Amino acid sequence: MTNSFWNLQNKNHRAPFRGMRTTTATLFSLLLAALSSCSQDPDKIGIGLLPDDDFIEIGSTDTVGIRAYTMYNDLTLTTDYTRMIAGSVYDDYFGSTYCDLVTQLRLMTKWPAREFEIDSVLLTFVPSRVSGNDSTAIHFIRLCETGTLITDSTDFYSGQDPDTIVYLGEYRLPDLEAGSPAVVKLHNWVGEHLLRDTTKLSSGARFYEEYFRGLYFAIKSVTEPIIVEMNASELSSIDPLGITIFYRSDTLKYNYSFVATPRAVNYNRFTHDRSTADPALQITHVNDMVTDTAVFMQNYMGLYVKLDLPSLEAYKNVSNLAVNKARIIAPVHLDDEYFPEKEMPSQIYVRYRNSEGRELPIPDLVHDISFMDGKYYSDKDSYIFNITSFVQAYLNGEIDEPSVELYLPINAVKNVIFKANTNEPAFKLEFAYTLY
Fold first, then answer.
1. pTM to 2 decimals?
2. Residues with Cβ < 8 Å from 111, sequence gap 6 or more?
3. Which residue segment(s) compose the domain that 425 sits in?
């Protein structure tokens, strides 16, 4: 019997969040306020702009501040199950980042109930992207069985340690190429461990809920680091990873596979060691709420940027106010050596935290990613973020705090440094509203 896992077996039923209806307001008068850093108290700016009676004449201001901070949280939820990432990366500013993963393995068929003698055991995985690959570098993969049940309703965090219970060996990686299967020969006893009780191989759910709950996958680099990404999306035409046991029964040869299908639950772990960065470039202020002249954003769930907009509170109790535009302009630091313009990430996202501290996408992102923007504009040396719906929701009392966070998607390769606070230029908010 031959069980191949190179065709997609199951579809992932995780549905993306749906958009929300947008509302429109009749334009009565317009105020453009370019909001940037200033020496005045930003909590009190804006009150004086509001007329006492008929709101016919409305002025404008460019003195409403944005406070920017570099932040880090190793308990960020890992919610992207479509990518499996392993390896490490180094940056002179940010230091070392390490990535590993845990995934379920699924049965393709019921065990055929025959005697067996194992010939070989192969791990096969298909990289969708390989970063930092050097043919002269030496890398090893480390495999372990994990003991904690993982489900698609369980919260997993970026710094969560895997519950490894059985060491399955360390093996040298072959040369890797994106899109080409990589094959690693495992010890035969790994197959014997997987087949130690074949009565557990009759039910898929029983197998991954009770018998073999997860596979831990990590890459250790001896010389130059490497990052390997596998596509676990339902859109992929192949399964990202599997273990196949080749065995004999009587005189006939067979194989049996355990596969990380897109339906299989997985999560990534990311750990960061900023102490390995270049001492002259090392990031100083993280989580200390110091308003430095630069703030830093890191890939693989590392540093993110917190932006406080305290001056919006001045507009919160104004009745009949409709936000026409609220747009953040975020200037970046560029240099030829570390941060060339050609390597700016193509997309940055915006989120906020509710009263319980849970991270949520801003309403503008729920509408559509193109509505939120988050793209880099070379003519401005800046990213632009539309937060119009977020600001309206805050002014309506639907969101508690006038604060957002900028972060990179999990598949971003490059980091970003923004000019901030007392720097020139710095973060700026373009704000327009109507009183009716």
1. 0.82
2. 195, 198, 201, 202, 256
3. 31-72+286-435
